[in-house]
Amino acid sequence: MEGGAISEVCRNRGVPFCAVRTVSDSRDQDIPAAVRSLGPGGVPGGRFWLDLCARPGDWMGLWRLAASSRKAGKNLSKILEEYLCAE
């Protein structure tokens, strides 16, 4: 993915590189269809809201995805903070 391309450029230029990823959804978690309608940067536009209103059952899945994304972000922040403070 993106990290692979960046890693290759860094390796070719002799620049140290480290990638840390976090997963925000489980293998068995359904991603609400409306998520595919998110705009650039994950910003919900008109199409997103129309898709979500057309599938009211997706609200709960979207809520769960938001909660797990927040948790993944907090975990990533914690790892980054520990790494930077160790230097």
Put the structure in a nutshell.
The chain has helices at residues 2-13, 46-54, 58-86.
Please specify the SSE layout and strand pairing.
Layout: H1 2-13, H2 46-54, H3 58-86
Structural account:
By secondary structure, the protein is mostly helical. It has one domain (25-86). 57% of the residues lie in helices and 0% in strands. The protein is built from three helices and no strands. The longest helix is centred in the last third of the chain and has 29 residues, at 58-86. The model has no long low-confidence stretch (mean pLDDT 85).
Mean pLDDT: 85
Number of domains: 1
How many strands appear in the DSSP assignment?
Answer: 0
Largest sheet: none
- Helicity level, as a percent range? 55-70%
Instruction: Give the terminus-to-terminus CA distance.
Output: 28 Å
Tally of separate helices:
3
Taken from the alpha-carbon principal axes, the silhouette is elongated
Structure classification = mainly alpha
Low-pLDDT segments: none
What value does the Rg take, in angstroms? 17 Å
Strand content: under 5%
Order of SSEs, N→C? HHH
Give the key terms.
87 residues, mainly alpha
